[in-house]
Amino acid sequence: MRSLVIPLASGDHKSACFALYRALLRRSQQVLPSVSAKVFAERTKHVFRINAKARSHAAICTALEDGYKTLKDLTFRESSVSNQLSEPSNPSNTSLQATRKQQPSSVKSNTLNHPPFDTGRRWPHPAARPVLDGLPPPPPGKTRRVPTLVNANHIPFIRFKKPQSPFLSYIIRQKNIEREKRVDRMQALEKQLDIAEDEDQWDKLLRDHHQVSADDNGTTWALATRQALQDVKRVHQTNTIKRMHMARRMFDIFREQRKLAEEERLERRNRRHQAYKARRRERAASGAVEQVNNGEEDQTSASAAAV
Questions:
Q1: What is the DSSP string of 173-187?
Q2: Do 71 and 16 meet the contact criterion of CB atoms below 8 Å apart?
Q3: pLDDT at position 287, please?
Q4: Which pTM does this prediction carry?
Q5: Residue 151: strand, helix, or coil
Q6: CB 31: neighbour CB atoms within 10 A?
Q7: Mean pLDDT over all residues of the chain?
Q8: Measured distance CA(143)–CA(79) in Å, rounded
Q9: E strands of the chain, at which residues?
Q10: Range list of H helices, 166-220
Q11: Closest to 177 (Cα-Cα) out of 153, 156, 158, 159
């Protein structure tokens, strides 16, 4: 039975629509003139705003096909323009190269291609400490930063800041790859059960009618397949339980850090309040002393005037 997909409630559908929307606006700014790009952007926003609440799958598919076709046309237009600029017989290309030679090095560096993406280090930082052992208190005069508990495709971890550590990203990717391999292995073994039962039936026919026996030590194809499937399921279940326990421990750490941060915030507020009250008392005391001094001066001046 096919599952009912609601576009408005699908995160993948929203991500695809936003990606298409950004790609259209970005490519139009690169290919079209400024005035045409502005008109194209307004029209694109209007169309996406109209189709934002569409529920018909046919209407959604038609709108997405039109959007991808438009993006393909813009890409083809950009590639044709770049090919024309790269032709050596084009005189405008010669002037472009001459202009580029006259540009300063700072402008050239901004127009060069970016280097390839660096995957970062694949080993922990030497000064890093295990998160599950507890977090150290903040330095004196610094505010405690509450970490964020994140669920990355059913893999819990605590993130302290962005961007996250390359080593942490590498670990998450490897765990996802290993889990996908286990799931694929389980599905493959489940499909092989029927084939294994057919093989056992064939061996039984050979043994009963032709007295041909295989040296299998009493192990059947179906039994070996079921044992392998149980082993993979056991490993998968063990890793799932480990992730659950780790998520509970990380949640306890997150809750403790949030509680400590709230206590420190209240303590800082109380210190500020006490300092404010102390300053008010000092101002009140200095005002009272000044008032007494003014009264004594007035009384002295009055006595002198009476004499």
A1: HHHHHHHHHHHHHHH
A2: no
A3: 77
A4: 0.49
A5: strand
A6: 19
A7: 77
A8: 52
A9: 148-151, 156-159
A10: 166-209
A11: 153
